[in-house]
Amino acid sequence: FPLFWFSMPAILKGWMDRVLVQGFAYDLSKSYDGGLLQDKLSLFSFTTGGTKEMYSEGGIGGDIRYVLWPMQHGIMHFCGVKVLEPHICYAPENVSVEKRKEMLSVWTQRLKTLWKEEPIDCSPEWYFK
């Protein structure tokens, strides 16, 4: 998805609001590591309008991990889902055709080994270190 206003597009958020409901995705007594979707994996793959430097520590947009906290931790991890390292293509509209092809090649290679990846620990330390 494209990163919109430091979040996911409204249509994706709306889908999550309708699907990840209490009783199916979580229960207040069963959340985070005990959530109802413990056997699931998630991966956020998205593009940004800004460069990697803009979303780095000290960058104008702040560290991208801060942006990911509510989506990965607050939604997916809350439901018990294990979260893989995000796949981010920074500012694809502002790079050369060759660089965009490289982005696609890297994504293609990652998809071949995705099921072998270990989830991030999803702790505040991972996001705010």
From TrEMBL:
<dbReference type="GO" id="GO:0003955">
    <property type="term" value="F:NAD(P)H dehydrogenase (quinone) activity"/>
</dbReference>
<dbReference type="InterPro" id="IPR051545">
    <property type="entry name" value="NAD(P)H_dehydrogenase_qn"/>
</dbReference>
<dbReference type="Pfam" id="PF02525">
    <property type="entry name" value="Flavodoxin_2"/>
</dbReference>
<feature type="domain" description="Flavodoxin-like fold">
    <location>
        <begin position="1"/>
        <end position="110"/>
    </location>
</feature>
<dbReference type="InterPro" id="IPR029039">
    <property type="entry name" value="Flavoprotein-like_sf"/>
</dbReference>
<keyword id="KW-0560">Oxidoreductase</keyword>
<dbReference type="GO" id="GO:0005829">
    <property type="term" value="C:cytosol"/>
</dbReference>
<dbReference type="InterPro" id="IPR003680">
    <property type="entry name" value="Flavodoxin_fold"/>
</dbReference>
<comment type="similarity">
    <text>Belongs to the NAD(P)H dehydrogenase (quinone) family.</text>
</comment>
<protein>
    <submittedName>
        <fullName>NQO2 dehydrogenase</fullName>
    </submittedName>
</protein>
